[in-house]
Amino acid sequence: MSRGLNKVQVIGHLGKDPEMRYTPSGKPVTTFSVAVSRSWNSADGERHSETEWFNVVAWGNLAEICKQYLVKGQQVYVEGRLQTRRWDDKEGQKHTSVEIVANEMMMLGDRRDAINHAQDSEPNTADNGSAMAEDEFPF
User: Fold this and answer.
1) Given a cut of 70, is residue 137 above it in pLDDT?
2) What is the total count of domains within the chain?
3) Phi–psi pair at 117, nearest 5 degrees
4) Spatial separation of the C-alpha atoms in residues 79 and 7, rounded to whole Å
5) Phi and psi for 26 in degrees, rounded to 5?
């Protein structure tokens, strides 16, 4: 029998404060978005950067921790699995969303940095010096 693997790890900055709600059975669920930026030099020496956004869902105790401690702009490590959700809206349009279902979260940096970062514009804006360089990653 062969086994599969569905594991994702991201390090990025929160796009907004986490939002928590409860299922009808009372289980907490928290959602937030994480911006992961990367930059590189092209062959002609020109600097490029791009940001990928990930929607994250945390359940149970982890949901409560994320809601309590995470703030917009904070750098965070999230580990989990990718999940695809499909649904039809009221007009019958089909929608698809890929999200990270988190099973681990680690706050990175200093909370004061997150507050200062949140006062700046977007997490990937190069003019405020907050764009993440490749050498900022610990691996």
Assistant:
1) no
2) 1
3) -65, -40
4) 7
5) 95, 5
**79: containing domain:** 8-128
Strands 8-14 and 28-41: antiparallel
Q: Which two tokens stand for residue 56?
A: 């994250």
Residue 52, domain CATH: 2.40.50.140
Question: How distant, in Å, are the alpha carbons of 32, 39, 131, 132 from that of 43?
Answer: 36, 13, 21, 21
Q: Is 135 within a domain?
A: no
Report the candidate in 100, 57, 73 with the shortest Cα–Cα distance to residue 15: 73
For 15-137, strand residue ranges (E) read 19-22, 28-41, 47-59, 75-88, 94-108
| Pairwise CA distance, residues 121 & 78, whole Å | 22
| Domain-located, residue 108 | yes
Q: What is the pLDDT of residues 105-122, one digit of tens each?
A: 999 987 665 556 555 544
> 3-class DSSP state for residue 10?
strand
